[in-house]
Amino acid sequence: MAEFLQFFFSGLTVGAIYALVALGFTLIYNASDVINFAQGEFVMLGGMTTVFLGLAGVPLPLAALVAVIATVAVGLALHRFAIEPARGASAVTLIMITIGASIFLRGAAQVVFDKRFHGLPHLFGTEPIRLGGAAILPQSLVVLVGAACVVVLLWLFIDRTLLGKAVIATAANRLAARLVGINTGRIVGLSFAVSAAIGAVAGLLVTPIALTSYDVGTLLALKGFAAAMLGGIGSALGAVVGGLLLGMFEAFSAGYVSSKYKDAVAFLVILAVLFAMPQGLLGRGRVERV
Amino acid sequence: MTFLQAKRLSISFGGVRAIDDVSLAVEPGLVFSIIGPNGAGKTTLFNVFSGLYVPHQGRVRFAGEDITGMSPHRLARRGLSRTFQNLQIFFRMTAVENVMVGRHRHEATGILSELLHLPAVARQNRRTREAARAALGRVGLKTEAERPAGSLPYGALKRLEIARALASEPMVLLLDEPAAGCNPVETQELEGVIRSIVKDGVTVVLVEHDMRLVMNISDRIHVLANGRTLAEGSAAEIRSNPAVVEAYLGVHGAHEAARAHG
Amino acid sequence: MRALVTHRLAALAPVAAIIVALPAFFPSAYYYRVAALVLIFALAAVGLNLLMGFAGQVSLGHAGFLGIGGYVVAIGPTYFALPSWLCIVGGAVVSGVVAFVVGRPILRLKGHYLAVATLGFGVLVAIVLTNEAAWTGGPDGMSVPRLVLFEWRVRGSDTWYWVAGASFLVGAVLALNLIDSPTGRALRAIHDSEIASSVLAIDVARKKLTVFVVSAVYASVAGSYLALFNGHVTPDIAGFLRSIELVAMVVLGGMGSIAGSLVGAAVIVVLPQTLTALHDYEHMVLGLLLMVFMIFLRRGVVPSLAALAGRPA
């Protein structure tokens, strides 16, 4: 039982991070049909920038804030210089562009930062909390609460503000949105900015536990994408559900089956979803007209 | 003896009955036209015939065989070919290459012999190219053979698609609005092409809005409205059918139709 | 004369000439080595070009087949005392079978779903190669016994240059042959309109599977060559970055241009070598190249140049 709880909580924790990455994917995909492979780099930038600013003497809260802003700037630049010029290109071309961006950002991080692993201090110390025989790090709870806050804030933004409505409109039908006066280019840019912010926050939350380095982005992006597919690409709720489920699958299979193949779980999930139910758990199916 | 037959076909998309209990029978060697207002289900019917959609109810028979739900390429192997309302041209290939693809049904393929480009493959390539040129000639596009399809004007592309379908030597040819976007001269030429196709013994099923063409060329007309059969008969019968006139032809259309035969 | 010039193999004559003449300019064995690597990767790129450039599909996991070819030629001789040349063939067979089995479900997908599924496949191969250390030597890889043909030890950068050059030319000829055939036309048709293709009696699923298997075999042979040339193989050979490099070669050189595969391979392989001082910037440059080409020069180098000259590539 203690073992089960242990896996449950570690699965939930890492799942919350996958959920945030998946949420970022979904936001951009809904606004522009682009699968942004650089999503993982946003997470990496959030953590690494904070670490290095901290090493340079900047107080951590300020470093974190600057890191998030810097990541948002990168997200906007990505949209402005790599996505906008290629508007109308095929889905595969756009994926390749974001893959190129992700490789570029990874290479830049290698040069600007370094190739080692780095951590951040835990927010509430490293003394584990005992729950039913399982030992849970306080930072795990920080991750869960933090992720929940992000989701709620995002929901409030989308549901309660005019700008949020504009995002939904753009996601539903870009042409119609433009016809009613919405600047869809800016909305897509906004979606990149918000995704970058979400990614950076995720990086901040998880770096104390999982450490960060210049190349954590790739695997995170792939797993975040697997989560988004599992939940149903295009569904924000699906992204969250998918992320948490994927985290659980990973933790439980690592614990009960084989920890060697932990990383393979996400890819098996991708393949299973694509073959069995491409629209995911909560996604909508599509009708094609000839 | 019916050649192509639909029995009580129905198909729905997201709650809308695109085709509702439609039956029709096409005799061999004739021109059978399907007309009706936009959204009546004409192209949907074609998509069912050519295997792109599977009907929810009903059967389709072709040359005595039940072909309901058969995949498009297997139907094509049985001699059923079609053109598309929204043009499905291979834009990156030249005109003659487009038509050469139409010969695929009659070509022998084998990955090993093709990788090695055995003499048989080279000979077949030559024969295919000649047949493709001949088909281009029939629709008046012989001079455009080497031009990239993407550079051809709309009217030429419509004819190219017909040439491509002809190259497969079909028994039944489904033409989906071949005259759409064509001027009267082009439509006249198209009529000539269709007549020559029928003379070769091909059965033609036509979906069209151009009433003059339809009335001139059709042996039998089937009228669809809202996914249901409204009427069926000869050109003269359909022209004078009050329900058809009201639902589709309108006063102007009826005049057009009358002028066609007068 | 015109027939000779427009013959489907005409584009290869200058390429063959360059391959033969180039070594005259090599100051040292190092140049042979780099050139041999270019030719080996170009072979893989030709296969991928058939899949992506002609048939219009996408594979972001093609390095998985490089890995299969590379490891079969390491494991066969090491654990089963099989001759290396047989393992090159064996690797190709294994890759072909894997492609056949995996391709059937995967190729039903389209667009970004297909891209991600192939990506998943490639990464899974890399993970298996990393984890099954008993067979593969784990993350550090394993050494590969040298190729021996009829008592002739195939070693040395110069020897491999000629082996790779000849293999690339053979591979290019086979590919050009395939393009000028019913299957080749069917693949190009599928690229432009799957619906029209199916209505013209083309079994779209089967054709896609065929080209997928062919491209897997090309990659497998290239992977075997890589392993035999280096004398060593690691799981990186099947990694995500390697798959992206392969795609970059095809895209840069020109989708749908066989000669372009050589150009693309040359750029991607030579670049890190010229940047040895700037070794750390390797990834930045690769990423930048990929982005620039996909945004502005989607057709790639060779077709763009050919368009300028007014001729088809």
Can you describe what's shown?
- The complex is a heterotrimer of chains A (290), B (262) and C (313).
- By secondary structure, chain A is mainly α.
- Chain A has a single domain (2-276), classed as ABC transporter involved in vitamin B12 uptake, BtuC (Orthogonal Bundle).
- Chain A is built from 11 helices and 2 strands, in the order H-H-H-H-E-E-H-H-H-H-H-H-H.
- In chain A, strand 1 and strand 2 form a beta hairpin.
- In chain A, helix 2 (39-55) packs parallel to helix 4 (91-112).
- Chain A is globular and about 60 Å long.
- Residues 286-290 of chain A have low confidence and may be disordered.
- Chain B is of the alpha/beta class and 262 residues long.
- Chain B has helices at 42-49, 72-77, 95-102, 111-116, 119-138, 154-167, 184-199, 211-217, 235-239, 242-261, and strands spanning 4-13, 16-26, 31-35, 57-62, 65-66, 80-82, 172-176, 203-207, 220-225, 228-233.
- In chain B, strands 6-7-8-3-9-10 form a 6-stranded mixed sheet, with helices on both faces. In chain B, strands 2-1-4-5 form a 4-stranded antiparallel sheet, with helices on one face.
- Chain C has 313 residues and is mostly helical.
- In chain C, 73% of the residues lie in helices and 3% in strands.
- Chain C has helices at residues 2-6, 12-21, 29-54, 63-80, 84-106, 111-131, 133-136, 157-179, 182-192, 194-199, 204-230, 240-253, 258-274, 282-296, 301-309; strands at residues 142-143, 147-149, 152-154, 232-233.
- In chain C, the strands form 2 sheets. In chain C, strands 1-4 form a two-stranded antiparallel sheet. In chain C, strands 2-3 form a two-stranded antiparallel ribbon.
- In chain C, a hairpin with a 2-residue loop joins strand 2 and strand 3 (152-154).
- Chain C starts with a helix and ends with a helix.
- Chains in contact: A-B, A-C, B-C.
- Chains A and C meet through helix 4, helix 9 and helix 11 of A and helix 6, helix 12 and helix 14 of C.
